Amino acid sequence: MKVLFTSDLHLKAERPDITRAFLQFLNDTATHADALYLLGDIFEAWIGDDVPMPEFEPLFEALKNLSDQGCKLYFQQGNRDFLIGKHFLERIGATQLEEKHRVSLPIGDALLMHGDQLCTDDKDYQEFRRLVRNSDWQKAFLSKPINERLSIAQQLRATSQQRTTEKSNDIMDVNPLAVASVLQEADIELLIHGHTHRPAIHYNQIKPDQGIRVVLGDWDTQLWYLECDENGFTLVDEPI
Fold first, then answer.
1. Radius of gyration of the chain (CA)
2. Is there a contact between 127 and 119 (Cβ–Cβ < 8 Å)?
3. The model's pTM
4. What is the DSSP string of 131-190?
5. SS3 category, 104
6. Is 117 in contact with 130 (CB distance < 8 Å)?
7. 176-207: per-residue pLDDT in tens?
8. Cα(151)–Cα(139) distance, rounded to whole angstroms?
9. Is the dihedral angle over the CA atoms 201, 205, 210, 214 positive or is it negative?
């Protein structure tokens, strides 16, 4: 059994090279997998399932074909695509996961997260996250015309970019105590997440010789994915 994990592609019209790389990944690599987990920020921005995105139509078809061929697709919302809804997931044949999801893998159980909720030192972001994850806020936002939604999203992104330049790298990384807490609460020793754009495998996340954290990388000049089978797991990167 082979299971793949990826996140943080940040697909957008301005980067067709990443879209092409993802299409190739789906057709060449994922087609041999039993399951593919998309752990958030697959798209740079998502303002509603009703918004036409013609530049990604081949990608949507490839995801649906992969699902139809028997590869199970799972999606976990990120901080850029938290408005992806039921309609889109049905279209590509994917199942939505909760923001903390336990999964049984060939090597044992793992906890899956996008990872942004672990960045607890970034108080401004956590406040913003609570706002936009509120169902009333989302309902009000999705009820607006597409042009207005797009304008709001651009304003929010500009504000986020400005605040990011004012923060230290440590503040925007995960908090070690938050990592240890979620692992202990779940009674699990393996955490897989993205979001931070700092791909690595970290050990001793609970205490010495206990707790592993795998961080997926963002797709930019390299593509990143985690491959897991009966023999273990490998964090893979390839040039785009």
1. 17
2. no
3. 0.96
4. HHTSHHHHHHHHTS-HHHHHHHHHHHHHHHHHHHHTS-TTTTSPPHHHHHHHHHHHT-SE
5. strand
6. no
7. 999 999 999 999 999 999 999 999 999 999 99
8. 17
9. negative
Place of tokens 């980067």: 15
Q: Which two tokens stand for residue 221?
A: 């000049």
* Beta bridge partners of residue 225, listed in sequence order: 236
Percent of the chain with pLDDT over 90: 92
Length of the chain equals: 240
- Beta-carbon-side half-sphere exposure of residue 25 (alpha carbons within 13 Å): 27
Residue 23 is given by DSSP the state H
pLDDT, one tens digit per residue, over 113-147 is: 999 999 999 999 999 999 999 999 999 999 999 99
Reported as type and span, the H/E element at residue 202 is: strand 200-202
10: how many CB neighbours lie within 10 A of its CB?
Answer: 19
CB burial class (10 A; 0-12, 13-18, 19+) of residue 184? middle
